[in-house]
Amino acid sequence: MPMTDPSREQPHLSKNALELDPEKAKELEEKFDSEIRFRPLAPTAGWLVGGLLVVLSIFHYYTAGFGLLSEMTHRGIHLSFVLGLVFLVFPFSKRGYDRPIENSILRPLGISLMDWALAVGAVVAVLHVPLIPLDDLAFRVGNPTTTDVVLGGILILVLLEATRRSVGWPLPIIALLFMGYAIWGPSMPGILIHPGATFPQLVDHLYLTTQGVYGIALGVVATYVFHFVLFGVFATRIGLGQLFLDCAAWVAGRFAGGPAKVSIFGSALFGMISGSSVANTVTVGSLTIPAMIRLGYKPHFAAAVEATASTGGQITPPIMGAAAFLMIEFLGLPYTTIIIAAIVPAFMHFFGVLMQVHFEAKRTGLRGLRPDEMPDLKAAFRRDWPTVIPLVVLIGILLAGYTPYMAAFWGITLCILVGLFNPRNRMSVGDVLVGLRDGAKYALAVGAAAATVGIVVGVVTLTGVGFKISFIVTSTAADMAAWIGAFLPMGWTAPQTLTLLFTLIMTGIVCILMGCGIPTTANYIIMATIAAPTLGLLGVNPLVAHFFVFYYGVLADITPPVALAAYAAAGMAGADPFKTGNTAFRLGLGKVLVPFVFVFSPSLLLVAPGFTWPDFIIAFAGCIIGITCLSAALSGWLMTTARVWERVLLGVAAILLVAPEIYSSLLGLALIVPVLVRQITAWRAEAPAMA
To answer: Which ranges are annotated Basic and acidic residues under compositional bias (predicted)?
Structure first.
């Protein structure tokens, strides 16, 4: 029976309860997202920083539409702005966020001389390489000058410090460990031993080549990611986010637990234009979390629903954070291939959250939105239809085969035009400048992190440690498979399948642990460099392997102890952060099963080699049933309250249904039968009483 009496009058929600307030959302995002929370600046310093941020956005906007600069020059200009600004806006320690602004000889414009020196040193060190003539640079690779080594060493130091300030300690520590491995290779144990590199040799590789700091990670951020983040800022500002929420409320609001389902659909739609979990959480959550709490959801559950749904934004086409663009570079595949492959995995994530929310609403007797609480969809489209134009054009240009940055250029241009001429949410020239400033804010932390990840990637290419780690992982997985296989009936599972299964489990665990301390983009790059080749050794298609490590890396945003999206949502709901994180992880557990399905059944990605419709239908159906069973087991409700033995059977059935063997799938279906029989019988018995 429902825990809440359905006949009890539940609070009324006004229509404007789901109306976005851009300024409030921006304030919340700056409060809960440490990557865009700047220290207080004196007025003159604020104007200086704001002006530099606008210039950075204009540079990227112009080059996207009228032609990129040479690879090293483009990346160098981007990184020089990023590192220079990081030292101006992020303090040395957290105390700097609360320290009063003191303009003195030792603190010009309220910023310490040390920070000014670091900013200038970073800019000089970064721009040194792009200013070297190309022919001269080719000669100096492998034979660096003293100036190259000194400035390269300075860049590495200021880069690590900039990353520490903007995203925390874990990523710089990982980079230092990899650098230590490169230098002290002869002292490493066993298979990890290698000849080692001197400090000048290491600096030469990381500083003068495109295999290190100026590598693929920085290139993708400077060439693709920046533009799409800027597009998302302007698309939200002109009102596209509000239209998405109105559509979500109209589709899902009327059903049990309406605001929670609006949160899921709204976050999915908002994720199309925002690749940030925290930005998605605070923007959509500023409306849905209070509505869920007023309707009867516990604060920690309401916060967890929003955080889990918002995390799906990073795997939702067409933007997908930075992953889609990184995959273009790593795999050499068209952008359209990447976003098509992402459709079903993204759907499965939101479906898993939706099922748990639905069962929770049924179990607790929470109602949907009443007709007078629902938005008028026709009126919303009449009011906001121009805001859809930029997104439609952007997707159309992408599908036509043009470059992503050209699509982003036209998307941004149309957002600005719509904002300038649309009577609703009209933007002034000042608003456009604010949008350019805010868009560049997101580039600082991710830019520093991407350059630092270049250090890790550079060490991997210099030492070949990636292949050694792959060998260690696959050997360990093979030993575990042999041990477990000895206890299984003959012919149930091939040794190769068990080896792959244990490799996937270990890889997934490492992805989650890595993601607990570093941004998801950085996590994906590191794991794509180290873990994806491991899966490749076992015959996994590269596209599938990259999606696996990315999918698991994103889970870190809702995995304690460092669940950024969950903690942001908890702060908005006034809930316990750790309890919210645990609940969010439970709601996202369906996401844990999905990567295993598309590894063993690549047809689920639609464009993976060997795709067939029969394979797709079988895998899709198994995934849907398995996620539903898992959601029911975790929620304790299917058609009525689930008993302990039913929850156990449903949990086991969920795992068996996503397994690669037909026998396990049939066994999983068989386990569901007694549960369904008991549930239907109990539901029929309770129906008259409920009526």
So the answer is: 1-12
